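pipeline/complex-builder :: batch 7 item 3
reading input block
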Amino acid sequence: MTASAPMPRPGVAFLLAQLGAHAAGLFAERITGLDLTPAQAGLLRMLAARPGRSQRELADDLGMPPSRFVPFADELEERGLIERRRNPADRRVYALHLTGKGETLLGELAQAGMEHERLLCEALTDEEHDRLLVLLRRMADQQGLRPDVHPGYRNLRPRPGA
Amino acid sequence: MTASAPMPRPGVAFLLAQLGAHAAGLFAERITGLDLTPAQAGLLRMLAARPGRSQRELADDLGMPPSRFVPFADELEERGLIERRRNPADRRVYALHLTGKGETLLGELAQAGMEHERLLCEALTDEEHDRLLVLLRRMADQQGLRPDVHPGYRNLRPRPGA
DNA sequence: TATTGTTATACTCTATAACTATA
DNA sequence: TATAGTTATAGAGTATAACAATA
């Protein structure tokens, strides 16, 4: 009789954490070719969706303190991907925008994202992929997650090899 | 005419990363009451599934270098949750095992996991939950993920508030 | 000579908290 | 007095590499 405690099989929560970390690692690895980290890619996407927001707002959404956001944005500005614009009405704030170069890179990023999606979902039929999408969107919505941001952006340099 | 570039909606990969980080953060927060981090909980589960493995093997599965595993295991040993047993046949290795106290805590952990699962999947019917489980397991299997471990264990102290 | 476990150390990253300029 | 942005700094966490014991 070797009947000890029954080992519970992993549930949805564990699989989401596992697959999520796996997906994030693969994506980080993929975009090293574009010389971007996931958090940098996230900021570019956020600026495309809502241009002109303040550093404070963006830092909040990314889950990082303003003191960390400054050098984070500095690098992207030095690379000519984003630009800071003064607001004459309130000279304390910077409005952040994508440059043309930033928009171009965002296009390459979208391509990388599509290939990433394809490889990650290779085990699914097209129909299954769509059904999965529906369920995950419903969960994300009910859990109060916003479309553009996710908590993993806090980690500035995840190991690409995950 | 405000038709600029069409903003692509997030796909499965992004939602998995987002929900996965969210789920991991909620779980981390939940088990602070048991005074455990996700990585510590992961080790306890690994020892329940396969007792007696060496520190080297376990460190590899957890994605951490041996030098980091030692103080990590030290703490759990000092708290009486795991124990190191010498192997007379090869005196270099320690075989790690759960103590009775560790098994008890693992039971509380399982309960926390069930409540976590319930809240995370609140938006789904029971049937949808099961269908989601099937799809995620198939993906995890095809992507080569092992049942007990996930790459997020590398992060020793994720913000509980995620 | 190779491997397990351990320790030491240098380095990176981080949050906290000042500080400035504007409001 | 409060807020956006910035800078400084002290502390925590990490990987790398050396080391000791055993094979």
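note: The two ends of chain B are 39 Å apart (CA to CA).
queue -> next item
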